[in-house]
Design a protein that fits this description.
Helices cover 34% and strands 14% of the residues. It is built from 16 helices and 20 strands. Helix 12 packs antiparallel against helix 14. The longest helix is centred in the middle third of the chain and has 32 residues. It is globular. The structure holds adenosine-5'-triphosphate. Adenosine-5'-triphosphate binds next to strand 14, strand 15 and strand 16.
Length: 587
């Protein structure tokens, strides 16, 4: 008996090791070592054991990003009753569950990047109670699941197609379980298969008629000319608005260049009169979206997740409305829950949310308008033309403010894998006193993992580039890059047009150290402030630690705060400040 027990332990250990390897050194890798089960106890993260056998694997919300290549990877885990890999970025095809006949409680692979068909082995799991495969990229048809035990089921938002098998079980779930699969048809979706197929063929025939093809080419050309003209008008407008500063978007990566004015008009057209804005301070009921849109909204710029507009409340208070796009398909409840989570974050260096709006057409975030724009424009804008110098003490103060905000976020954001996830200079706003306010934080949970990984993380860490792996330490890397940008004035590569002068800041700093840096690495604008050199070198040392290639070697944000706070402002700035105090910008 002991021999067979040992064999089980070995087999299950092999299966778990393969799983660990598939996930490319996940955060728990160090923890998954030794013997996985000791009786009913397991010290392995996310594992539960019963009589030395693994009965449950729950690895949710961990930012895992590997690929499962072997469909029989779990075959040795024959006592498994529950499997949850929910909300990671795992790719590959679905496992074959033929050998996991005890899988009775739940299989949850939702919110990942799985591709290929749904495994027909699921039909053999006669006691399975819950199956969640939503928000992946599964394609093909749904297998004829008909186990009476199945009471919770969701395959929404995949690329499934064809007719939903006409089984009692599959018919018992409402359309919500199937939504977001445009090519799926059958009773539960209210979409009759025959009609949709006919329609599809009609469209195909229509598109293939030769005379129409030429009409489409001409229409395409007209559209292109129109788009170029709109872009020209938009650029002209942004230049006028910028007063010598460049707009962050002017130097932003391509792909986000949808006409923002057109975007605004769409928003007005699709808006119902009575759409409510929920304000966290309780003003909610009195303020409707139509009031918000009455004031001519000024476009501020377009980012990865939507456009920002400046509007004015009835009280005269300027506010910013961020129109979100590319979100995960969320219910009002899910969205509100996340917003309420963010509403409790209050820190002097965090840009607080005032409220939000959610409807099927629009998802908006409302916040205060930050008078002095963003750090990107302050650093890189208007170089050479009528620019108020951005002096050392102001830069140091921004570095301190941002470190404090990030440490606070890391402390408050509980289980979030990457508490900010999108730290970059344009997401550091400046108020009327040039106090830095970190914004656009904690959006990762409401965007699809695939987009979160590619749009967010402006300064991409080595582990992201190699394995698309992110963690809280990615935020630390981003902070290090922000420091390098602040000290050197170099334009980061993510914001520079292709072929431009952008620098991969996190890697550049290591090269600079190898080549024994001198004061020449500092921004020319700081060159005259010799008494600040010591502080600049100290801050570069902090940046260097934050940009350690190995995430484990990077410091925690709390340590970073201590190190940055220890750097004293210099005296030369104060004289300049006095000279400038008659000017509009305080440094
Ligand atoms: N509350 C605010 N006050 C003043 N300007 C703002 C405010 N919020 C956003 N902006 C500005 O509006 C512009 C667009 O912001 P948005 O957040 O949409 O894009 P981004 O920060 O450049 O990119 P991303 O979407 O990746 O964060 C930026 O120039 C930003 O600085």
């Amino acid at each position: 008996l002991e021999d067979s027990q040992d064999q089980y332990l070995r087999d299950e250990n092999n299966a778990l090791t393969a799983l660990k390897q598939a996930f490319d050194h996940p955060p728990f890798a160090g923890n998954w070592s030794g013997v996985q089960c000791s009786g009913n106890i397991s010290s392995w993260f996310g594992l539960q054991c019963l009589n030395n056998r693994v009965v449950s694997i729950s690895l949710t919300d961990l930012g895992l990003s590997g690929m499962i290549r072997d469909p029989l990877i779990l075959a040795n885990l024959t006592e498994l009753t529950l499997l949850s890999l929910k909300n990671n970025s795992i790719s590959g095809t679905m496992m074959n569950f033929s050998y996991n006949q005890k899988l009775i409680t739940s299989i949850d692979l939702s919110l990942n990047l799985f591709t290929g068909p749904i495994s027909s082995s699921l039909t053999s799991l006669n006691l399975l109670q819950s199956l969640h495969l939503n928000k992946n990229r599964f394609n093909g048809s749904i297998p004829p699941l008909n186990q009476t035990s199945l009471t919770s089921f969701d395959v929404s938002f995949n690329s499934l197609s064809g007719e939903i098998p006409d089984t009692v079980t599959l018919r018992s779930f409402g359309p919500k379980a199937y939504v977001g699969n445009p090519d799926l048809c059958g009773e539960p979706t209210y979409k009759t298969c025959v009609v949709s197929r006919k329609k599809h063929n009609k469209i195909k025939d229509f598109l293939l008629k030769p005379s129409l093809i030429s009409i489409f080419i001409i229409l395409d050309f007209i559209l292109l000319v129109f788009q170029i003209y709109s872009l020209y008008l938009f650029c002209k407008k942004s230049n006028k608005k910028g007063h010598g500063k460049i707009n962050a978007k002017a130097a932003a990566p391509s792909g986000h260049n949808i006409d923002i004015e057109q975007d605004k008009e769409e928003m007005v057209i699709t808006t119902e009169d009575q759409m409510k804005v929920t304000f966290f301070n309780g003003e909610g009921g009195s303020f409707l979206l139509k009031d918000l849109l009455k004031s001519p909204a000024e476009a501020l710029g377009k980012g990865s997740f939507g456009s920002c507009y400046k509007a004015t409340k009835e009280t005269g208070q300027p506010i910013v409305v961020k129109r979100l796009r590319n979100l995960s398909p969320l219910s009002l409840e899910e969205f509100s829950k996340h917003m309420q989570k963010l509403a409790v974050f209050h820190h002097p260096n965090l840009h607080s949310l005032l409220g939000y709006h959610f409807s099927s057409e629009e998802k908006l975030l409302i916040s205060n308008f930050a008078t002095n724009g963003n750090l990107f424009d302050r650093l890189h804008g208007g170089r050479g033309i009528n620019r108020t110098p951005f002096q050392w003490n102001s830069r140091l103060s921004v570095a301190k403010d941002v470190a404090k905000a990030m440490a606070y976020l890391h402390k408050m954001s509980g289980g979030m894998i990457i508490p900010h996830g999108n730290l970059k200079a344009s997401n550091v706003l400046l108020d009327e006193n040039d106090t830095a306010l970190v914004t656009d934080y904690c959006l990762t949970p409401i965007v699809p993992p695939s987009l979160a990984a590619s749009f967010m993380l402006a300064y991409k860490s080595p582990e992201y580039v190699r394995r698309r792996k992110v963690s809280r330490k990615s935020d630390v890397w981003s902070y290090g890059c922000l420091l390098v940008e602040l000290i050197t004035g170099k334009l980061p590569d993510y914001s520079s047009p292709e072929g431009g002068k952008g620098v991969d800041l996190g890697n550049w700093i290591h090269k600079a150290v190898r080549e024994e840096w001198t004061f020449e690495v500092f921004d020319l604008e700081l060159a005259a402030q010799r008494d600040a050199y010591k502080g600049m070198f100290m801050l570069l040392q902090v940046a260097l630690r934050c940009c350690e290639k190995s995430p484990e070697k990077r410091p925690e944000m709390e340590e970073v705060v201590e190190e940055v706070e220890a750097i004293k402002p210099c005296a030369s700035d104060e004289d300049e400040d006095e000279q400038e105090s008659s000017g509009s910008t305080s440094n």
